[in-house]
Amino acid sequence: MAIVDVTDQDRDTRGTGFDVDRIREDFPILRTRLDGPQLVYLDNAATSQKPRLVIDAVSDYYANTNANIHRGVHRLSVQATDAYENARGKIQRFIGAERREEIVFVRGTTEAVNLIAQTFGRTHIDRDDEVIISTMEHHSNIVPWQLLCEERGARLRVVPINDDGEFLLDEYENLLNDRTKLVAVTHIANALGTINPVERIVELAHARGVRVLIDGAQAVPHTEVDVRRIDCDFYAFSAHKMFGPTGVGALYGKLDLLESLPPYQSGGDMIKSVTFEKTIYNDLPHRLEAGTPNIAGAIGFGAAVDYLTAIGMDNIASYEDDLLRYGTKVLSAIPEVRLIGTAREKASVLSFVLEGIHPHDVGTILDQRGVAVRTGHHCSQPVMQRFKVPATARASLALYNTRSEIDALATGLRQVIEVFQ
Amino acid sequence: MSDHDDLYQEIILDHNKSPRNRRRIEDADHSAEGYNPLCGDHVSVFLNVQDGVVTEATFEGSGCAISTASASLMTEAVKGKTLAEAKALFEKFHGLVTGEDERSERSLGKLEVFSGVCQYPARVKCATLAWHTVRAALDKDDEAVSTE
Prior knowledge:
Chain A is α/β, with parallel strands linked by helices.
């Protein structure tokens, strides 16, 4: 990412109507002040905070609508079903999916990846076949494929990254071959912030008839996602990283592909009829949603989509890009800071190490000043190995962060350096 | 004085910067490896024992300031102790950093600088890694230990 001169404004006033002060008002936790200093929340890649709209949607559901879905004829059950299916429609439109049935509710990105590994993987990947991932994947997009490859006698291939943390397209092209059955890569890397060229990745795979799953967990809160433009076969993401509740997420899949999948979990709701001789499975998406789902979570997820849609993903992306550039400039001005992840196309993540100081010590001292960052391997140990660091400190941004919060981070880092000098 | 002084005291910063006894003993009488998967901290402890007394204690490894200083101070503390005394010291230290031991007469000397750790639950494992490892070494347990 090029560092450009930035003006001294704390909010975007380029006619987008993006007002960060007003946005902050929507998040109750940003206003609470416990005994310590004001919270500076820079751990959004781990989970985001929740706006009042989402909190209210969940609590209203329990207070006024709670009933099981797809069951009774009674009024509450019908209302709950409508609210749940309405949320599915919001998510469908949010990512540009063609049909509502292409959205399967899951517990989160991890379950979505596991669902594809256990259904598509077990029916399409055989001995000596290959699955391609990249060095910058989250463990949740590594381990399910490792387990699958072990079980099926298949081989896991890994696309390397360069010193800036960028996906190497040439190396990827070389890895694609007749044995490749699936490519599973992240849209935006959680430990580095790299935005991958997903459209090109899909295009190259499809040219060889290879299916592609995109891990979109870090992309959906920051950038507009259009699954039809990307043309991916599967897209996985979680509600909680995009200001929705924990414990719910979505798997998008192209309809014909989802139709071809065997059952994932089995039980209630995924069937049309059951006798001891034969079970007839339900239609999509219910066929892949066994059991009573996280109804309140799905409704809160829908509210989070409403929230983001009202602000506009373009406005969010442009505000955050400005903030990331500012953060990069401010951190780069501290000589002891080494940024890990300097891709030209980058979003929302400032991962770094301080010369001679362990990230855990950095995290503890920042926390004492109210600045919450994540320290550790960020569930991406291969990334740490690639950059030869045991861990990093990571400040990850969201739409409610400000330049003055970046300044608080920088001030905190200068104090860390002072303590350890 | 800022808040972090109760954790990052002078002695801890000093032992982090200039760790004592950081070297490997080839053919040590006892040794063990410790690993904290949460932080990636890794420590090896080496002991020589004569007539039931620790005559030499060293460590190798890298980690955060708390874990490095703790390993360094641990090697100083166990040297000259009998095996039973060293194990008793582990228990006392563990009580100190977890805040489970409220007794005033701990007689932990320099190790008291870690008393602030109990205020930081996320960092207790950093302080205890070297101690879990030395106990494994004393038990002649050559298996790697983990704080998890």
